[in-house]
Amino acid sequence: MAASSSATTPLLRVRAVQKSFGSTHVLRGIDLEVARGEVVSIIGPSGSGKTTLLRCVNFLEPYDQGSIAIDGVEVGYRGDETRKRRSERDLARMRAETGMVFQLFNLFPHLTALQNITLGLTKVRGLGRAEAKDKAMHWLGRVGLTDKADRLPSELSGGQQQRVGIARAVAMEPKILLLDEITSALDPELIGEVLDVVLSLAAEGMTMLTVTHEIGFARDASQRIVFMAEGTISAEGPPAEIFSANQSNERLRSFLARFSAAHRL
Amino acid sequence: MGYVLNFTLIWRHFDKLWSGLILSLELAVLSIGIGCIIGLALAILYVSGGRILRSLIAAYVEVIRNVPLILLVYLVFYGIPTVFDFAYSNTTSFVVTLSAYAGAYLVEVFRAGLDAVPRGLIDAGKAIGLTPFQRLVHVRLPTMLRIALPALSNTFVSLFKDTSVASVIAVPELTYGAQWINFNTFRIMEVYLVVTGLYLVTGYAILIGLRALERRYAIGR
Amino acid sequence: MLDQIAYAIPFLLPGLLVTIEVSLITVAVSTVIGIVLGVGLVYGPAALRWPIRGFSDIIRGIPILVLLFFVYYGLPLTGLNLQSFAAAVLGLTIFKVAQVIEYVRGAIETVPRGQMDAAKAIGLPFHERFFYVIAPQAVRRFLPPWLNGVTDAVKGSALISLLGVGDLLFGIQKVVARTYDPLALYCFGALLYFVMNYALSIASRALERRFSYIRE
Q1: Suppose A41 and one of A14, A34, A86, A222 were both cysteines; which one would form an S-S bond, judging by CB atoms 3.0 to 4.6 Å apart?
Q2: Parent domain of A187
């Protein structure tokens, strides 16, 4: 599993990926690259396959054809001709290099906020308890929740839970952070605190691939926007280009038109 | 092992099993019928009654749920007649017992069902001017029955299996028939394989039938 | 009436102990085996899942009494000659194992799917996902129905009197045969069973309340 990370190899490379759920063809040939330190946001109508693509990157979903590679190493399948699935061990190790934050938070309800973070640090990164605790407290501080360290998720608001979720993912120091509609399940007044954390992480150079409905966030945080529709990438480019009034892509225009002016700000 | 399976004796006496099965079903149907009446009445009383009534009903439910059915069967068959100085057939006493048993479990089912009726429906009933009694009859009970349908089906299948306890007071249902064949032919494996099959198939058939009913009428959760 | 009961108590005590003993053994053994098989049902390969599923469905589809008779009368034919006590415990245990398998399956399957995703996402391998994330949540869902099921073991144990095992009900029957006062004695017996099971159900309800924070 040698990593070939030269400066020119993209951190994430998705090539010709196809995926079907039964008879539904969800991903119809996706090509995507994310460079180190880049923030890429995927937008698009529901059913376009955005979340499925994200879940393929850390192999929460297997994909039928094509290749997904992180730092040159194929995800999920052996890089050779056989297309055999990687062992559980390998998969676990690869997933440690990606971090994911979920729409429904998925915090472990039987563990405190602190323990949610230290679980990965001790069991996967192999840190000692004291070191893991220090690290976890550092990241809790980063998301503004040091005073909630010993609380259970059921005692936290949605926004707080999501911030813990972000800390849990980032504390593992992953190569790339995958954010799956992380504000879609939040009350509007709680969205800001979560997006602020993500923006500050992006500013520090975290590589991110996000699926989002927050158009304003996508525009402010990303170097590139990817517009997906019906399983393919319909448009791709820097925010200025995507959101410009001269955008020629009809599908993209009608999608964006659904968002009110206030939202787009 | 040296034991060779031989079903011919079973088929010769199959009528005992078949009539036993029919009787088991009859006992189950009777008991759940009466049990429903008891359960429904008590559930309505529980929901609308005062503390004393609720405690009494709760006591009834708790006693039945915590005492073995076989003990209840003995108590009703051997014990009760001594108090009032009468005698009744074993079948009658079993139906009484199983109905009271069913009633206790169904009080819970119906009470939970009544609680699960959405407030909005009751409010709508109030809004169009229905009296409390009318609301009960036209809004709450119909809705409650549809909600409770899955639990009702499960209870019925359970009761069908519980009819086997009637064999201890010599009611000629399916398990009694099995024991009769057991003691008279010594074909233990064969008779119990057949009886297991009969219980499984019948139970499954009941479930499928009730599921079909559920699909038409039940309000899903 | 009361003096009948007072007379009977010394005769009923050994039976009561047998009932408690049988219930404890049944619950203990069935829990261990049932958890192992239940986990096998959820995570095992098809060759393991189908037999376990079949076993659980068949056993739960027949009356306990039929199972007890089947085991009691059928076992000697397979060459295994057990005492009534052992045969009765075996039958009751088989019945409870099938129930425990169902409790385990229900407990694991109601843990939200997202938990598995989150555990995978931080890089935990399968056995660690199970021990640190799924199992703690499953246990809290498993305990209430399991504790409720203990009362089923106690109630089911009364049937072993039919196999000649000297449990509480057997003792009651013998005293009734001597004193001809069924009502008082059956009522007293009902009281004893009631006290045992009611205490268990109170404990189960308390546990359910304690762990309710886990559910959504």
Answers
A1: A222
A2: 37-45+92-264
